[in-house]
Amino acid sequence: MSDKTSAPAGGLKTVIVGAGMAGILAAIKLKQRGEDFVVLEKAARIGGTWRENRYPGLTCDVPAHAYTYSFEPYAEWPAYYAKGPEIQAYFEMVTDKYGIRPHIRFNAEVTALDWDEAASQWTVRVAGGDAIVADVVVAASGVLHHPKLPDIAGLDSFAGTKVHSAQWREDTPIDGKRVGLIGNGSTGVQILTAINKRVDKLVHFQRSPQWIMPVPYFTYSDEERAAFRADPSLIDAIRYNDEYLGAIKRFTDGITDIDGPQMAEIEEYCRLNLENSVRDPALREKLRPNYRAACKRLIYSWCYYEEVQHPAVFVETGRIERIEPAGVRMVDGTFHELDTLILATGFHADRFIRPAGVTGTGGQTLDAAWAVRPTAYYAVTVPGFPNFIMLNGPTGPVGNFSLIDIAEMQWAYAEQLLDLLRQRKARAFAPTAEAHAHYEERRIAAAKKTIFGSGCTSWYLDATGVPASWPWSYDAFVDAMKAPVLEDYALSA
Ligand code: NAP
């Protein structure tokens, strides 16, 4: 059955794909303009990454007061860093406060988006047969949402409970169990700190050590929350102060000036954290990385080094040979007998809106356009795919800061392109291939020189080994998002 809904005469119709942080943001902004839009969400709830991830220890390592929409500060955070369910509750609250829920179609997975050149409209197909016609598509489908299983022989043969961090089940056996944890990125580190005192033993399989940046952690009292409520400038003071925003700027300066003073300072903090926190010299050496700090996403933790020294934890740095029904066999023959195996092995970070099939002008598919790497002009628009806006799309800024701020800046940029349609100056916009090629050439050259390209493995690297990220400073991104360079856009009347 086809339920074709045409765009109403005189107004824009927008389809937003995904009801996570970025999709809710776009919905709020369009609702405030009184525009016609629908949010298509594949799951039964809003929340994106905060709905999907439910592993023990899930915490956002961006200060809670800085991890909200700028227009919706929140006085109620229990602590400096918020836990996953608290963030999910924040987004649920905002969704209702702004009246977005009635605009969301849940359990509506987008399977295909086709650009109709003659009509200058997208046809958006939803699993089950529906099709919605829209002038604009906002791809707000997230980055890290396709779990990556490790390529280890025998993985399926494990007879105990095996779970990926992003597919956590409440009944995962932890208490008093022999647990193996593969992966020590931000996720694996958080899981270790949450379960180490519950297990009989925890074997943490570490393929590469990680640099750990020490950060403060404290709770807020009822009096402090009351003060935040009474005076929101106290929240702004946290969000925009030197400790957070200043640190982000120094951090991105360091990423781009890898032999400069900022990176030297970051490395020294991490090195001293290791030297001063880990008492056993043998463990200290196991945990010492042989690549530069911040090459992989820097791990912010106030307790990892303390918790990894708990007697129940063993850090296994040998190579895994295979997984057997009863546990994990190492190349040196060591066998770790396990009841539970947790895979904190990350995500396929190159998918974005795919596997939905996206077809732009001239029948060109996004798969073909992204054959080498996912790419977008200034991380927001894609040549050949008109009226297609990506929030937190490919090669945007990555690091230890709020992607909400990034999405807000991207939306402010995109609004100015939408204004061209609203004011009937164009029916469609897309960056020109030439402008995009020139941008990508500069981006790639700069990305190779960032700290992310300094010699380590990480999900920041694309399939060709080039960092898939914004390679300039935070301030440069703020500037770039202030206004699109319209000469770089092809506008069709
Ligand atoms: P990740 O950073 O990609 O880490 C994956 C881990 O799995 C690495 O330690 C990797 O080792 C290991 N691994 C992968 N395949 C393996 C194999 N075959 N054998 C052994 N080890 C293997 O994934 P993540 O920890 O889930 O984090 C992903 C991103 O999510 C983070 O970088 C961050 O952006 C975001 N995140 C944020 C927060 C937050 O607080 N804001 C919390 C969690 C996650 P190698 O290092 O050797 O490759």
Q: How would you sum up this structure, described in words?
A:
By secondary structure, the chain is α/β, with parallel strands linked by helices. It is built from 14 helices and 23 strands. It has helices at 21-32, 49-52, 84-97, 186-195, 222-230, 233-239, 242-256, 261-277, 281-286, 304-308, 366-369, 403-422, 433-448, 474-480, and strands spanning 13-17, 36-40, 59-63, 81-83, 104-105, 110-116, 121-126, 131-134, 136-139, 161-164, 178-182, 201-205, 212-213, 299-300, 313-316, 320-324, 327-330, 335-337, 340-343, 357-359, 388-390, 428-431, 489-492. A 5-stranded parallel sheet has the order 5-2-1-9-21, with helices on one face. β1, α1 and β2 (36-40) form a beta-alpha-beta unit. α1 runs parallel beside α12 and α7 (242-256) crosses α8. Mean pLDDT is 96; it is low at 1-9. The site of NADP nicotinamide-adenine-dinucleotide phosphate has 26 residues, from β3 and α4.
Descriptive terms for the model:
493 residues, alpha/beta, FAD/NAD(P)-binding domain, five-stranded parallel beta sheet, 14 helices, 30% helix, 19% strand, globular, binds NADP nicotinamide-adenine-dinucleotide phosphate
User: Helicity level, as a percent range?
Assistant: 25-40%
Question: What portion of residues belong to β-strands?
Answer: 15-25%
Oligomer: single chain
Please state the second-level CATH architecture of the largest domain: 3-Layer(bba) Sandwich
Content-based structural category: alpha/beta
Number of domains: 2
The CATH topology of the largest domain comes to: FAD/NAD(P)-binding domain
